[in-house]
Amino acid sequence: MSAPRFYCPPPLPRGNHFELPREAAHHAHRVLRLRENDAVQVFDGEGGAFDARIAEIGGRRVVLHELQSCMEETESPLRITLAQAMCGSEKMDWVMQKATELGAAEIVPVQTQRSVAKLTADRAVKRTAHWRSVAIAACEQCGRNVLPLIHPPQDFAFWLANLRAQTDGARFILQPEGATALHKQSPPQGSVILLIGPEGGFSEDEMKMAHLADFIPVRLGKRVMRTETAAMAGIVALQTLWGDFS
After folding, report:
1. 57-83 confidence digits (pLDDT tens)
2. CA dihedral (2, 145, 9, 55) positive or negative
3. pLDDT tens across 13-35, in order?
4. What's the sign of the alpha-carbon dihedral 159, 160, 162, 163?
5. CATH number, domain containing residue 38
6. What is d(CA 82, CA 227) in angstroms, rounded to the nearest whole number?
7. What is the C-alpha to C-alpha distance for residues 228 and 154, in angstroms, rounded to an integer?
8. How far apart are CA 188 and CA 29, in angstroms?
9. Cβ atoms of residues 43 and 11 within 8 Å
10. What pTM was estimated for this model as a whole?
11. Is the domain of 164 the same as that of 52?
12. Which of 22, 46, 69 finishes a domain?
């Protein structure tokens, strides 16, 4: 059984002892019921991690000792950015969690014409913080030491306009009627953006904008998938073809 993992904001400590942040300490003590001398792992979300043991636990304090650097590489060689059209809150949480587990490097929620969820500026700030906490928990579970970059919700047209100034990497938009199968595409050189539409699909104008931004329509089989299913299927396909699933 692997040791419990806890996220701690950088920088990681350099001494022989380290006290877990309050939230992590509460989880270790009250939820996991860990005890003295239990093994744990701490990571900073930027690639740094260390193994340790609990020296003291009680109340709101958990103190670690026997710190040993652990630099196991778990990031995919293919940098995947998932651009996910906004959907219901539970579905978006699921997308954040599973995309993190599957190795996405960035996740961009995009607001499209047919997006079900519409967020005010204040709500967008709160949801972005919540999504980051979902990604942190997913990293703790799956063994990643690097947190994916969670962007705040972006207006679709504004996001595409900013992309036009960038020229690196491949860009795919998943479409049931896409003209080309994903596996027939040339391997991306280091990075790829996967664009997933809302439940009702992209509008005709949005498809034209995506085409002008150099997105290539691709398909995964002959079945029509829900938006959250399509996102995960697309990431799995990318990782299998050109990432670390092969």
Report:
1. 988 899 999 989 887 788 999 999 999
2. positive
3. 777 889 999 999 999 999 999 99
4. positive
5. 2.40.240.20
6. 12
7. 18
8. 45
9. no
10. 0.93
11. no
12. 69
